[in-house]
């Protein structure tokens, strides 16, 4: 449970105990005033459920409106209070608290957080009053927000879970959650489909790369074999040519050497 919510429940506990002895409509009405004026009391559902507070529903016109007032503090807004007739007049503390509770209910869309809209919804006359209300709510731990004075808006990032559920709101919440669940399932299905497609393309790319690598390796192997055979053939032919050249030269040398000696012998003989 959120700490702010636990703090609010603890603050309400004494008034729940006091409700057991509030046997008269006047005592029950006074208890409503005390509970809605006390510091840190921001949830009222448990107090509403007590028998003596519920008994105000059948009380006189003087005291019955206090039950309606407690309903508004539990799940209503400042507009609900101003639009409902015959309600008890609020003290300054009660006005501040009801405006703070209303501020928790308003951040449902960006358009509800402009200064102009908030001033209207909270019946505040000046920007300074609105900013003071927001700042007090932040320090009380009711919400996390920033004042954008340039854009004249309140940027709310989170609110404390301090509003009670209005009667009949559960089916609507269930419907909203079911719609959200349906959209989440649809998005997850699309993501899974995209992941499968990416994997399929990756496998195809890997297959092409493997085939390309095999083709390159095969081509390189064929080239190496061709160079080896060519080298062997070239070496044999060159060796044969060298043998022929050397034998030719040797033959010519032998023939030339024999003729030279033979001629020299004849000339010497002839001289004798």
From TrEMBL:
Q: Where is the composition biased (Basic and acidic residues)?
A: 206-228
**Which Gene Ontology cellular component terms are annotated?**
COP9 signalosome
Do you know which PROSITE patterns this protein is assigned to? PCI
Start and end residues of each stretch annotated as Disordered: 204-272
User: Which Pfam families does the annotation name?
Assistant: CSN7_HB_subdom (PF22061), PCI (PF01399)
**Alphabetic keyword roster:** Signalosome
The family note in this entry says: Belongs to the CSN7/EIF3M family. CSN7 subfamily.
The protein in question is named: PCI domain-containing protein
UniProt organism field:
Letharia columbiana
């Amino acid at each position: 449970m959120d700490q702010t919510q636990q703090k609010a429940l603890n603050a309400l506990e004494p008034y729940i105990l006091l409700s057991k002895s509030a046997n008269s409509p006047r005592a029950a009405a006074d208890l409503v005033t005390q509970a809605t004026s006390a510091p840190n009391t921001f949830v009222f559902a448990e107090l509403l459920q007590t028998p003596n507070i519920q008994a105000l529903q059948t009380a006189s016109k003087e005291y019955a409106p206090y039950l309606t007032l407690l309903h508004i503090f539990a799940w209503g807004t400042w507009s609900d209070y101003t639009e409902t007739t015959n309600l008890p007049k609020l003290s300054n503390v009660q006005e501040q608290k009801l405006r703070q509770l209303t501020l928790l209910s308003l951040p449902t869309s960006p358009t509800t957080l402009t200064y102009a809209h908030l001033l209207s919804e909270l019946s505040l006359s000046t920007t300074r009053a609105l900013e003071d209300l927001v700042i007090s709510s932040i320090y009380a731990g009711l919400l996390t927000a920033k004042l954008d004075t340039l854009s004249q808006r309140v940027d709310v990032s989170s609110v404390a879970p301090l509003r009670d559920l209005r009667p009949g709101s559960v089916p609507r919440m269930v419907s909203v959650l079911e719609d959200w669940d349906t959209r989440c399932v649809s998005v997850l299905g699309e993501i899974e489909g995209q992941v499968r497609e990416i994997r399929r393309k990756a496998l195809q790319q890997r297959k092409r790369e493997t085939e390309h690598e095999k083709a390159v390796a095969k081509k390189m192997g064929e080239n190496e074999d061709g160079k080896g055979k060519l080298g062997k053939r070239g070496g044999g032919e060159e060796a044969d040519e060298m043998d022929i050249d050397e034998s030719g030269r040797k033959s010519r040398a032998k023939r030339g050497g024999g003729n030279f000696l033979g001629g020299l012998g004849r000339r010497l003989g002839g001289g004798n």
